[in-house]
Amino acid sequence: MFLFVANYNVAMNVVNKLLTALGHSTNLHYDKWADCRKYVSGHKKWIANILPYELLERNIKSSVEAILTLCECEEFYHSFPETVSTPNYGDKWGRCANYIELNNRAIAEMRGDRCSNGILSSIKMLPAIPPSAKSWANCVILSQIFPNIYGDGYNKGVFEENSIYGIRLNAGYSSNIIDFSIVERISPEEQLQVFNHLANFRGIKTGIRTVISADQIKAAYYNRSDENFNWKNSAHQELFIQEHVKLVDLGFECFFIDSAKHIGGYDCGNYSGVGALPEYSQMQYIIDSIRKRSGNTHLSFVGEKSTGDFERYKNLGLTTGTAFISSDDFNSVKNWSMQFKYNREYAPGIEVSNDNDNGGSRYEDRLNRINTCLFAYEYPSDKLPTFMQTEDLFPLRYDTSTHHLMMTNPSYSTDGTPLSHWKNLFSTDDAAAYNAKVGELFSHALNL
């Protein structure tokens, strides 16, 4: 029997480090499984007409091999490249991007009452995320990175609250997401880097969802109790900046800011978060500081519900915001794209769905919205930013929804195994055919 022994003292790229930490060889082979399931648009390749569990039940090495097999280049890399760069769409790439939020907690490995390894599941899903187009980027937003305040590392009952919107800063990264069984061989930070390197190799940018409502944040400290977050506490503000700069250093290029519309007390009659928000000038300083300290001028900052006073959000430092016009109306969206065509700093975006989506939309309606998102413009350079959720590509089972999975963390496993959870989390009836239709829409858009 061949025994693969990893030498962890030898410098290696983080993808190879993850492979060896999981007991795999770093010698990679062409993946015929991915090749026979690929959709092709010019040189762009991805997997469609598929159910998520078909990807999630594969091991990490197979997933890496699938990603290399789907490379736009004509060469197959038998070992993962030492250097991978983010797709280059200039400093203002976020102005036209498609943002696809992937709930990495929901697709994590559910074993009994434990929840873990969401970053490994996210890697496995990458072959089925369409790559960026010629004129604009696709960006995957991960729903969870930081530990959540209650129940982190555990799944709970279907209706027992376990909100993804409550986070602990200065406490590392979530047990829902990281594989802590291998941290002596590859650190949590390196595991996140692996996801970013593989996404970038796929031609995809990455970001995270973050929260700014004070009562939804805890400041964690070693050997003492967590502190309630306070925006008037300069140490807490500094901690917020530092934690987000760290993520930029790991390769994330976008921050989706929950409740951003209400920064500075704006329109708080419709504010549904919990706790105080930063002042307007304070948030300007925070966004500017993250850009400057990370040394990355191309970061995209997205504001939830940043609609109405667009100049206000542009001057705040945001790149785009969600929910200003219905994506059901193709012509209205096209007209708005023409109105904003000369504004390259900021443009409002449109949604297929958002994190408050309670499900129930017909497949036909979602497909119509995706069509609007991808084609409602006169020229590709005028395209408005767009926002999609996991369910818009991979339909969920009938009795759950995007919002439900953000507020709770149930396991749908019938036998305590991850595979059973994955099979039961998503819809099966017509879901692969729906995913194929999404793939057809993207196939017409990627070479524009």
List descriptors.
16 strands, 448 residues, 3-stranded mixed β-sheet, alpha/beta
Describe the structure.
This protein is an alpha/beta fold. 32% of the residues lie in helices and 14% in strands. The protein contains 15 helices and 16 strands. The strands form 4 sheets. Strands 14-13-12-11-8-6-3-16-15 form a 9-stranded parallel sheet. Strands 7-9-10 form a 3-stranded mixed sheet, covered by helices on one side. Strand 4 (109-111) and strand 5 form a beta hairpin. The N and C termini lie far apart (51 Å). 50% of the residues are buried. The model is unreliable at 1-10 (pLDDT under 50).
Characterize the main sheet: 9 strands, parallel
Strand count: 16
In the predicted model, the low-confidence regions spanning at least 5 consecutive residues are: 1-10
Radius of gyration: 21 Å
Structural class: alpha/beta
Shape: globular
As a percent range, the share of strand residues is: 5-15%
Count of helical regions: 15
The percent range for helix content is 25-40%
How does the SSE layout of this entry go?
Elements: H1 14-21, H2 32-35, E1 38-41, E2 44-47, H3 52-56, H4 60-69, E3 98-102, E4 109-111, E5 114-116, H5 118-125, E6 138-142, E7 167-169, H6 188-201, E8 205-210, E9 217-221, E10 224-228, H7 234-249, E11 254-257, H8 280-294, E12 300-303, H9 310-316, E13 320-321, H10 330-339, E14 347-348, E15 350-351, H11 363-375, E16 386-389, H12 390-393, H13 402-407, H14 418-425, H15 431-445
Parallel strand pairs: 3-6, 3-16, 6-8, 7-9, 8-11, 11-12, 12-13, 13-14, 15-16
Antiparallel strand pairs: 1-2, 4-5, 9-10
Helix pairs in contact: 5-6, 7-8, 11-15
